[in-house]
Amino acid sequence: MVWRTNTSNQWVDYQFGGPTNDSLVPLKTANRILAAAVPGGAIAAFPPPHNFFWSRETEFNLGYSWYRKDSDASCAFGVAAGRG
């Protein structure tokens, strides 16, 4: 998974080492984008701003992006429907 943090504007490249996750791991991503880089390409998750976020919100994600390591061979990622 790769994302840019909204606090330091630095790229994070997480390689899914370590144990599996029992629950979703929330991320605060810049520009509301989270991507999975795979050989030959990538796939990204981001919400459509016109029906997920209200007009006064900044470009920073408030923890709605998430990932989860299910096993050494699989993972999940996306955008939560809301946290509050």
What does this structure look like?
By secondary structure, the chain is mostly beta strands. The chain has one domain. The chain has one helix and seven strands. The chain has one helix spanning 49-52; strands at residues 2-4, 11-13, 25-27, 34-38, 41-45, 65-71, 74-79. The strands form three sheets. Strands 3-6-7 form a three-stranded antiparallel sheet, with no helix packed on it. Strands 1-2 form a two-stranded antiparallel sheet. The radius of gyration is 13 Å and the shape is globular. The mean pLDDT is 79.
Distance between the termini: 25 Å
How many β-strands, per DSSP? 7
N-to-C series of helices and strands: EEEEEHEE
Q: Can you tell me the overall shape?
A: globular
Treating each run of at least 4 consecutive H or I residues as one helix, how many helices? 1
